[in-house]
Amino acid sequence: MPKNPVLIAVTNRIAQRSRPWRSAYLQRLELARRNGPQRGALGCTNLAHGFAAFPKNDKLVLREQKQPSVAIVSSYNDMLSAHQPFEHFPKIIKEAAREAGGVAQFAGGTPAMCDGVTQGQPGMELSLFSRDTIAMATAVALSHNMFDAALYLGICDKIVPGLLIGALHFGHLPAIFVPGGPMSTGMANSEKSRIRQLYAQGKLSREELLDAESQSYHGPGTCTFYGTANSNQMLMEVMGLHLPGAAFIPPYTEMRDALTAEAARRAVRIADGGGEYLPVGHVVDEKAIVNAIVALHATGGSTNHTMHLVAIARAAGIVIDWNDFSELSAIVPLLARVYPNGEADVNHFHAAGSTGFVIRELLDAGLLHEDVKTILGEGLRRHATEPLFIDGRLQWRDAPEKSGDENVLRPAANPFSSEGGLRLMTGNLGRSVIKVSAVKPQYRVIEAPAIVFHSQDAFLQDFHDGKLDRDFVAVVTFQGPRANGMPELHSLTPALGVLQDKGRKVALVTDGRMSGASGKVPAAIHVSPEVLAGGPLGRVRTGDMIRLDAEAGTLEALVPQEQWAARGSEAADLSSNHTGFGRELFAVFRQHVSSAEEGAANFSLPPLEEPSDLLINQPGGNNSEKEFSDEDTVVTNSAINPR
């Protein structure tokens, strides 16, 4: 099927908008690539330090500088269930790299924190900033200039985006992402949600809640709901940075170990000097970024990626904004229902057809760019497959023709919805996003008086005091990245769910975030500009009528214009958010972070040598430049120069 014209138009607009930065980025990659392996630029003393502790045979390979050396960058720790399996991956990788004629070194580790542990705690205020910290740690790991390719071991919320941002700043190096897989299915998600709401109502003890949560999160692997961690895995596959079908294979299985070993062998082959050079800065181009946005919509993925994908794109010299997300959402059907957008978990999704099925359906519907580079070479169609063992060897076959369970996964011809799960909201409160894939149609339009809170603790106190048993819109302010690091506000979900189930009309509006666990209550999040940056959300007063219309994509305070214009922002004492639990170490991040729509990042697009008439259509602009109808006009600047 021909590509959808909106897909082509949005891609061309992004390419045109990004051209000066993308061109400069690709020029930097070419400058970073030297003749021969990177370690060939090192002096003898430097090189000797680099392989001093290496086994004798591996040291010989590095000394002769003829075979590829692969960096391992890992977010391993044994507190996070998703990252605990990475403990034994380096041994598998090193052995497989030797078999392929190269070597692998553990180049460095990155921090990895769990939003599930820090939820509602002061440590959550470091969570978003940990992404850029991980990117910097990745750069430190690769700074030794010893490597020809890299394997990145990570799964969860900020970790994969941080690793990829770091990888793109070393975009001349090929990169393969190596996941660990999900934990086995525990308590049913519907039952888990029910128990959380009972606890929020004071009908269950903490011991009963902990017992239920322990049945849900019970072993190694990622959490099994479709939040940011598992959205990461979907996006790495559709961007061609995983081996096909690698995302949702459980840890500690023969298939998982086989895929890890094959990733190492593939890294040797695509390394500079390995024969099939594929630098990650060329794999991640405008088309790959658009493919990622499409897959996010098609699967009802995490709202965090309205920030993370923006930051990832900028690391590759590509500029996207929420208009791009919104226009693509309108044409992309919803193919999956995985909790919190349904009852199933990712293990059910995987059994029903998994990522290969989604990629194939979207390709056949003309909703993905097939003509992209991936770690397998040219063409995304090769990722519409699933791994299996045939005669004891790891091989791939086409994804199943039919879904194994159409309650979980459907073909593009029979979707759950004709459009994706994310929408842009605009109005006199700013720009925001809302995830509607889990919100029933009758709850998508709310008009009710505001109740303003400056913290989630203040909201929860009023809820427990019985003050919120009415129709209202909770306006939670000073939750943006500059104010307090933009923590997730998941602890509000059970309380709001209780009120909605009682028949109350409720919604949440905030400059904070809710992430992949955004659920059945309408929540306009990431409101930009944030209040501390002068955003109009700070003008809202308790009692103002707020209209949230997720169908029309509008978010407004129904206040007379003169009265609205005369108001200033309310003030709040944020001093308690800036010290303790290491928060003072991140003061420079809070001072320099960009808006949510610009990726909530502490790095920016590099300055250009000369002004350009292409410096148009910045995030939040009206996107009015010429759109192209011929897909061949897409500007990607992605040719790899031969030696």
From TrEMBL:
Binds 1 [4Fe-4S] cluster. GO terms for cellular component: cytosol. Catalyzes the dehydration of 6-phospho-D-gluconate to 2-dehydro-3-deoxy-6-phospho-D-gluconate. Pfam families: ILV_EDD_C, ILVD_EDD_N. This is Phosphogluconate dehydratase. GO terms for molecular function: 4 iron, 4 sulfur cluster binding; metal ion binding; phosphogluconate dehydratase activity. [4Fe-4S] cluster binds at residues 156, 223. Residues 407-600 form the Dihydroxy-acid/6-phosphogluconate dehydratase C-terminal domain. Belongs to the IlvD/Edd family. GO terms for biological process: D-gluconate metabolic process; Entner-Doudoroff pathway through 6-phosphogluconate.
